[in-house]
Amino acid sequence: MVQRILDNKVRTRVHGWEVCAINKFQTRSSLLSSAVLGSLVAFGTFNRITFPAFLLPSGVFLLPHVSRKPLSLLSLCSAGFITSLLAIVVDTAFYDASADALSHLLRTRPVITPLNSLLYNTSTSNLSLHGLHPPYHHFVASLPLLLGPALFLLWYIRKLTLAILSALSAILLLSLIPHQEPRFLLPAVPLILSSVRLPHSRGLRRFWLATWILFNLGLGILMGVYHQGGVIRAQSWLGQQNQHDLGVKEVLWWRTYSPSVWLLGGKEVVTTDLMGMKADLMIERVLDATGRCGDRTLKSVGLVAPFSSIELDGWTGLGHGSEHLLFEQVWKTTKHLNLDDMDFEEDGIRGTLERVVGRRGLVIWKVSRPCRDSKS
């Protein structure tokens, strides 16, 4: 998961640099180290709004140091402000086409990414599109998935270091957010692993190392190849749709990772991410996108969805069929698992595995209206 998504990789490294900078600040709180720490804090916050959750113990620990050295505090705050201002300028220029120069920044609405992210994630209706989880989800699902056999090494924690305190505070704070994913806790993994030690027993140590290697190999294949593994393949195929004569100008993605539009290779294809919205709302969006019978704007659209989404069976011919939409399967890969759609409470363990694993795959459908007097 660290290598798969750039955002996770950057955030994990910045957290590590932040801990190193704080350790150096404690021993030698120069103006340079203060400036580096301030820049890292600002950069990490603009990278992910959850970054401050890892800083709570560090901030409390640094209060006595900065109170005795006001110049270091001034250097830290100044560097953080300058880095934040630079990030606002870059984000505004990127997301607002009219703000292509610094002189236009004050005449437009500046894009403050952490503020926008905070406003979005404080709305339960927004988070419901991605999935809602109970407060204990990180403890019973995310941590076992990320740590595996290392979870048992928590009994061998040497001492409550700044690293382990940062990890624990972040896990507790992030558990208060209704939407929880294992990748949110990725920066906590190296912090935890750096605070534990291997068992003293030679046999137990060898057994743990063997399970650790097997765990990483298995999860590497599962998360690196199969989990949402069809997204890149599907988007790359769509980028070559002129060769396949697909003939759609808009593609809707449902229950997948957000697709990277640069994989389209500059093709004029509108990409709409429906995220995890309910099936009936998704169908309404597809109906709106295809137009209405007798309308001159009637067109075909693409729909990318996991094959494990049984709600589509009644529309794609696997169920009772539909008189409103015509689904034509134009592409499919079986190297795709939608582990975000596992519902053990509703389907049970066997039913969930039969659906998610037995019906693994990602499908591209060409969807059109079967109007008698219209051509799609």
Plain-language structure description:
The chain is α/β, with parallel strands linked by helices and 376 residues long. Helices cover 50% and strands 8% of the residues. Helix 1 (6-27) packs antiparallel against helix 2 (31-47). The protein has 15 helices and five strands. The radius of gyration is 25 Å and the shape is globular. The protein has helices spanning 6-27, 31-47, 56-68, 70-95, 113-121, 124-127, 137-147, 162-174, 188-193, 202-226, 230-238, 241-244, 279-290, 313-316, 344-356; strands spanning 250-253, 270-273, 301-306, 326-333, 362-368. It has a five-stranded mixed sheet with strand order 2-1-3-5-4, with helices on both faces.
Write a concise synopsis of the structure shown.
The chain has 376 residues and is α/β, with parallel strands linked by helices. Helix content is 50%, strand content 8%. A five-stranded mixed sheet has the order 2-1-3-5-4, sandwiched between helices.
Order of helices and strands: HHHHHHHHHHHHEEHEHEHE
Number of helices: 15
What class, by secondary structure content? alpha/beta
Number of strand segments: 5
Beta-strand residue percentage: 5-15%
Distance from N terminus to C terminus (CA atoms, Å) equals 41 Å
Strand numbers in spatial order across the main sheet: 2-1-3-5-4
Which parts are unreliable, with pLDDT below 50 for 5 consecutive residues or more?
Answer: 1-5
Shape: globular
Q: What does the radius of gyration come to?
A: 25 Å
Largest sheet: 5 strands, mixed
Helix proportion? 40-55%
Mean pLDDT, all residues: 82
